[in-house]
Structures are given as C-alpha cells and as structure tokens.
Design goal:
alpha/beta
C-alpha cells in the first residue's frame, strides 16, 4: 500500500502512480485532495484526487479504444482505494505511522461540517464509478467491470499487541450531545472517567459556543481504549450520561 498524507501535492501523487504499478492506495481526506494548489482548473463538483488516480485517457484509436498511457495521472493496476477520514479514536503522531499502525472501517465520515462536505464529495464520485456513470473530465472511462477499484472509508488505529489485551473501540455520538461535557471541564471529566471505568476516553471536538454551530449535528466517533468488557460497560455509562445531562449554554 502507498499512503499519501493530507498535504501531498496531487502532482506528486501522479508522479508516483505513473512510475509504479500500485494495487493499493490510501490518502488522508482533506482540502488538498479536493482542490490542490498545483491545479489551475476545477469543475467545482469533481473530487480531483480520484480523477488523478483514474487518469485522463483520450480515445484516438476509435470508439472504446483508449490511448496508453494516460495523458495525465493514472495509477496502473489499482485494486483498492482507502480514504482515511479524521477521527477521535486515535490521533497518529507525525513520524509514527509504521508497521504497528493499521486501518479500520470508519464509523463516521467526519468531525466537522467542512470535513463532512469533503467526504460527501468523494462519496458522490464513488457512486458515479459504482453505477458505471464514470468520473467527469477523465476522457475514456477505465474504471468499468473488473477494472473498478474497491473503495473504503477508514481510520488510523494501532495494531493490537500480543502482550497487551487492551483494544481501541468507538461509538457514534452526535456533536450536540457533547454539550453535556463543558470544554472547561473536559480534562477533569476524562481523568475521572478513566479512573472510574479503567477505560481511556477520546472525545471528538465540540462547538466553542452555543452560537457556533460549525459541527453541531454531525455524528463522529468517540474513542475508547481498554479491555473489551470494560469498554462495553463504559459505552453504556457515557451514553446514559450524555442523554440525561443538562446541556450548558457555554462550552
């Protein structure tokens, strides 16, 4: 697998893919993958990294006969594309993405409305591929039949170590429920929760104030780290707390 981080220029993506036959590609879903600084064109509704991975193929040998190689972009032999969406489950440290880090299916598409917009844009493009409509502005559609890559939304997560029975788990929580945990009290709340349950809790970002609805209503992952039995009890406890607690007016 080749992993492109969130600030990788799309020209770099193109150069790597054109010089190697790559079956699995993963990239971090971000503004760069949608509208890279190196691009001087944008149709406004196209997710540019997918267009680069597909490549542009003219059909100058008659209908249904694409030229080879692609006029630009293109990733030969591509079988799977993993779209890494941001999560509160585990936040990787720069330089720490190594053999003990893996990918897991994502429960949530985003942490904020802006991230959700970007993720939904790529999902719209994936639907075009899956229903054989094809991506726009790529010339001849190469992703058909058995040549279609598999798409998946994933998160980073550490591998479970043989000598450590603890695992990472998650559950979906609407952002508006997080008002039950005021921002000023989060550190104390997290410490108390871990002391009482034996489970480390990772909270998604909350709106800064009641008037700032930048990510209210978006479901995202609340992360847990601990023994599986303790995590199941902790999930029930935190959900009861979030549902029953009064929501403060200021976070």
């Amino acid at each position: 697998m080749v992993l492109f981080r969130q600030d990788t220029c799309l020209h770099t993506v193109s150069a790597v893919c054109r010089s190697h036959s790559i079956q699995n590609v993963a990239f971090v879903c971000s503004e760069v993958t949608e509208n890279c600084c190196c691009l001087n064109y944008s149709s406004g509704d196209e997710f540019n990294i997918l267009r680069f991975l597909h490549g542009y193929y003219e059909s100058d040998q008659g209908p249904g006969v694409p030229t080879s190689p692609a006029a630009w972009g293109g990733c030969r032999g591509l079988k799977k594309i993993s779209i890494i969406v941001k999560s509160s489950l585990w936040k990787p440290v720069p330089g720490r993405i190594n053999e003990i880090v893996t990918l897991r299916p994502a429960l949530s598409n985003a942490l904020t409305f802006e991230q959700l917009r970007i993720t939904e844009a790529i999902q719209d493009q994936i639907k075009k591929v899956q229903n054989d409509t094809g991506l726009c502005e790529v010339g001849y559609n190469m992703w058909t039949g058995s040549s279609k890559p598999k798409f998946e939304l994933v998160n980073f997560v550490p591998e479970q170590l043989d000598n450590d029975p603890r695992i990472y788990e998650a559950m979906l929580v609407p952002h508006d429920k997080l008002r039950a945990i005021p921002r000023s009290q989060r550190s104390a709340f997290l410490n108390g929760f871990e002391f009482g349950t034996g489970v480390k809790l990772f909270l998604p970002c909350a709106p800064k104030s009641e008037g700032n609805e930048g990510n209210i209503g978006v479901e995202s992952e609340m992360g847990f780290f601990g023994h599986i039995e303790a995590i199941e009890r902790a999930k029930e406890q935190i959900w009861i707390y979030l549902v029953n607690s009064a929501s403060p007016t200021v976070l």
